[in-house]
Amino acid sequence: MDPVLIVGGGIAGLTTALALADTGRASIVLERAAVFSEVGAGLQISPNAASVLDRLGLTDALDRVAVVPEHIVMRTATTGTKLATLPIGRFCRSRFSRPYRVVHRADLLQVLVDAAAGSPLISLVVSTDVTDVQFGPAGVKVGAADGRRFQGGLLIGADGVWSTIRTETLGLPAAVPTGRTAWRATVETAALPDADWASIGLWMGPKAHLVHYPLRDRALVNLVAVLSEPMAEKSWDAAADRVALDAVFGEWADPARAAIATVRSWRRWPLYSSRPDRYPADRPVVLVGDAWHATLPFMAQGAAMAIEDAAVLAACLAKAGNPVSAAESFQKLRAKRTRSLVDLAARNGRIYHMSGAAAFARNMTLSALPAGRLLSGLSWIYGWKPPPLS
Q1: Are 122 and 17 in contact (CB under 8 A)?
Q2: Is the pTM for the entire model greater than 0.90?
Q3: How many angstroms separate the CA atoms of 268 and 251, rounded?
Q4: Ordered structural domains, the chain, with CATH
Q5: Distance CA 103, CA 81 (A)
C-alpha cells in the first residue's frame, strides 16, 4: 500500500498523519520550512478537538503544556462593563467530560512532532517545497523544487490558508481577504496591571476587539487584537507599528488599554477566509484544515476544525480503502459542519465590532441571557466526537 503524501507539517498535517497511523496507514509529511514550527502564540482546544487528541493518546502530553481556564469574561471596550461570565471550565467538564484548554501553538506542535517522530508509520521530511503534482493510474507523484520526487496513493493538502494544492492542483478559488487584521503579542503576567488574566477575556468595541488568555502555566498572557483594516501583505509574522493600535485602543477602558500599552513588540497578519467548496472527487486528493475552510478566529475553532478533519479522513480511509471514494466521503461528511463554522465565525466578527445602537442591543442581550443558555448554544460544536474507525 502506497503511503499518503501530506503537504504541510503544521497542526492539520501532523494530526492527520497521526490519525492515519492510528489506523495502520503510513504517510509522508512534506514540510516547506527547514524545521517544524508554528507562527503565533496561543490557540484554544475545545472538547471536540480534545476528543481526537484523546483517541491519539496525546492527553497526558497536552495536559503538561496546556492551561485550563475556568471562565470566559465578556466586556464592553469603552467602559469595561462586564456583560457575561461564562463558566466554560465547569460546563465542558460536566457536559462533555473534557476540559476547555488553551495552549501555546509551539507547544502543541511539539507534542504532535514528538508523537509523529516516534511513529514508524510516519516519515517527516523538511525543506521540501512542492512544485509539481501529477496523477496517474498508480496514484499521485509529487515533485519538489530540489528535484526530489515522492509517490503515494493519496495527496492531502494541509498547506494552510494560502494553499497551492487548493488553487493550483484543484483549481478552487483562493482564500479572500476579509478587511481585518490580527495583532498578537505575549506578555509576562507579572508585567500586566492587576486584573483577571487567568480567564479568557473578550473585549468588544467599535471596529475592533481584544482577546486574552493565559499560557504556559499562567506565566504568560496571549493578547490578540483584531482591527477592521486592510492589509495587502500576505504574511503570518509581519512586524507591526503600534500607532494603529494606539489610535483604536487609546480610549478603551483599563486594563485592556494598559495591557496593550505594555507590549513593546507586536506581530500582525491579515485575516483571510474561504468556504469549503466542493470539488470533483475524481482524483486521489483531499484538503484539510485552513486549506479547505479557512475560518476567522471569532469562534476559536480553526485548529479544532483541522483536528476534526484528521479524524474523519482517517475513518473514511479505513472504511473505504479506495482513496478516491474516501475523499468523496470525507467531503460529504465535513462540508456542512465546516461551512457552518465559517459562517458563524464571520457573523460573530460583525457582532464583536458593532457600534452605536447595534452595540447597545448586543450588550443588553448578553447581559440578560443566562450563562447556561449562552453556553448550551455551543453544544453542537463542543459535543462533536470522532467517528468510529470500523
Answers
A1: yes
A2: yes
A3: 21
A4: 4-175+274-382 (3.50.50.60)
A5: 27
